Amino acid sequence: MNSTKNMSIFVRQLSTTPLRQAAMIKPPVPVFGVEGRYATALYSAAMKEKKLDAVEKDIKDLKVLLKQDAKFSEFVMNPLLKVNVKKDALAKIFSKKNYTPLTLNLLVALAENGRLKTLVPIIDCFNSVMSSIRGEVLCQIVSAKPLDAPTLAEFEKTLKGFVQKNEKVFLETKVDPSLIGGVIVTIGDRYIDMSIASKIKAYNAVLREIV
Fold first, then answer.
1. In this structure, which CATH number among 1.20.200.10, 1.10.520.20, 3.40.50.300, 3.30.70.980 belongs to the domain 33-131?
2. What are the backbone angles phi and psi of residue 27, rounded to the nearest 5°?
3. pTM of the model
4. Mean pLDDT on 117-127
């Protein structure tokens, strides 16, 4: 119920008439959940206003900012801050960065609805839509420590064997020390866990059954 209400508020901010709300342009690939609905609304509005490239530029910049600026990320995700404080701060920050009104509306709507914690998943959903348009398959490698260039090149070469000839591999990396070692690889909607942490978990489960 809350998700539907939040989505309606965002759509009203992006499209001011009932007709435009009804004529939602669906992305070329399905995206799901609350984050999928926000990403779809943003994609639809950007398509209608012919600002898809500009919005994508905003979204990429926003993802980098969230990843590299710990204080900003903490501010965005902090549920204790008042809505008006967040709204005003976000509007000032991103107006100076010349973000499109569509991207600003997304951020304000998320702040008003208490949904800023879903910002990263929304960004990922939107990026997956854009990757699909370009014929890219998003491949994410999560490792316990940063991978060097030769290792990444070898991974990319191997991953190309899992996609169609007309598709391109878009490689994204992430570091998660809790894996201890090994990697977790996501190729589109396929998921392969080769981490040491998962092996330890499996071994512990076997030991518990024996005991």
1. 1.10.520.20
2. -70, 160
3. 0.67
4. 93
